[in-house]
Specification:
- The protein has seven helices and no strands.
- Helix 4 (about 45-70) packs parallel to helix 7 and helix 6 (about 85-100) packs antiparallel against helix 7.
- By secondary structure, it is an all-alpha fold.
């Protein structure tokens, strides 16, 4: 496991702070609690953290769609949260980033979220 201290040593305090600003709390037991904490963190995170979050979510959602397109049952075995809760919380993440960030990455985040939402509804 790559630690915060290692990240600070490798990339400096600023980068470490930006990444930690959007690191999902790992000690929450449920998908909903983890995502709720993540959204709350976005409300206070620096702009640089929001850009990191947007890029990460774009990658996560795209990878999910590509990897599980032919085997959605495996997706639900590998991941927790109902389709409705995943759509709700990812939607809140997109909305929060959109409200706080003026950057072209937001358009791509919204587009990929639409694809992800459609994937979950199929």
């Amino acid at each position: 496991k790559y630690t915060a201290d290692e990240m600070e040593r490798d990339f400096g305090k600023s980068v470490s702070d930006f990444v930690l600003g959007v690191t999902e709390p790992g000690n929450e037991p449920s998908f909903e609690e983890r995502k709720r904490g993540y959204v709350n963190g976005l409300l206070k995170a620096p702009i640089e953290s929001l850009i990191i979050s947007a890029a990460d979510k774009i990658n996560n959602m795209r990878s999910t769609i590509e990897e599980y397109a032919d085997n959605k049952e495996l997706f639900w075995k590998d991941f927790s949260g109902s389709p409705e809760s995943r759509i709700f919380f990812y939607g809140k993440i997109v909305e929060t980033i959109k409200d706080r960030l003026s950057n072209p990455i937001v358009d791509e985040l919204e587009n990929v979220f639409t694809e992800y939402r459609d994937f979950l509804k199929e």
